[in-house]
Amino acid sequence: MVPRPWAFPARFDPEPTRTPGELALGLHRAVGELRRAARSQALRAGEGAVLLCELLPAAIEVVDDPVGTVAAAVARSIDALAPVIAAAPTSPAQRDQWLGRLWAALTGDAGGHLRRLAEHWGALCVTPTRAQAWAERLLPEAREGVATAASVACLASQVAAGQHEEALELLAGRTIAVWPERQFGVRALAARGELAAAIAYAEASNPLGHRHAQDIARVCEAVLALGGQREAAYRRFAFVAHTRQNCRQSFEALRRAYPERAASELLGDLIAASPGQEGRWFATACSLRFFALAAEIAGRSPCDPRTLVRAGLQRLEVDPGFAGEVALAAIRWLCGGHGVEISGDDVYAAHDLARDAALRMGTQGALRGAVAAICDQPHPAAQWVHGLLARELEG
What we know:
It is built from 23 helices and no strands. The chain is mostly helical and about 400 residues long. Among the domains are: about 1-110; about 120-145 and about 150-165, no CATH class; about 305-395, no CATH class. The protein is elongated, with a radius of gyration of 27 Å. The chain starts with 19 loop residues before the first helix and ends with a helix. The model has no long low-confidence stretch (mean pLDDT about 95).
């Protein structure tokens, strides 16, 4: 049976009118197509992944990417595609041909869009013998430049070939700590069983303190886990390593990485790792049906008042106690000046929810005093809320 042609090449014709978001979406779909194919056609998927890497530079070059949307998508895609290429059951000759094509794409990419590929070079070599050959080939150029494709790929190949001393010696001659290179020092030390030294080396590899923080956390987490220190990997690095675009995605990423831990434990630890920002996890707690925890979050940490009211309305009939708690919390945070573009309608919506919940629980008599106590503070927003609810409070 002749396989269907790849759909992805048509998405990567150089097109100046394409937006960064469109290109990133096309890349996401291409990676999905290749990974699905890899389940039953590993060799063909590997060939397709090499082709995609060859197509990317020209497609990216004509797209304006001011905030790095495409750059981030390319890095994620290469991280996903490198295992597909490495796992393909090629002959030695075909593996060498693929590496030649990938190296030509990498070194011919003037914009540096494929630079992440160099970090995977050791894995792409597949065998220690081939990795050693590439390390020797690239070493002269690696000594001349810092964080170039040649230097990063050389270090990756040295570590893959078991040349740990050689990798550390090359890094020792650097005058600046550059994480794309120094990650291989971490891996070399870990391979020698020096886990504490590897973690210390990693933590000294990010002098600016922010740019590579997540990549460093991921490597340190992997090093500790492979070294039999999974608990330490989780406690020290997992929360940063698995941070995603929103709280729910971060939770799901952590749950995939640590399936042995209960969802309630994972969420509790994520909240504890976000001091001062616990309110961001309210919606995630609700979506996981941890309503008692959600109410606790709403009561002690600023949350978006509209989010609280929406959650309370959804639970009003089945759980008026929860609805009442989050309604009062919404009023509290409104009185504290929290929320974006808040209007009087938001205040009335929170109070109406509190009243409806109290009616269902038979606690109407206590509601007026509770709301009045919340409004009794000097914050200007509290005086505004009190004025809007004056008639209900005087009752």
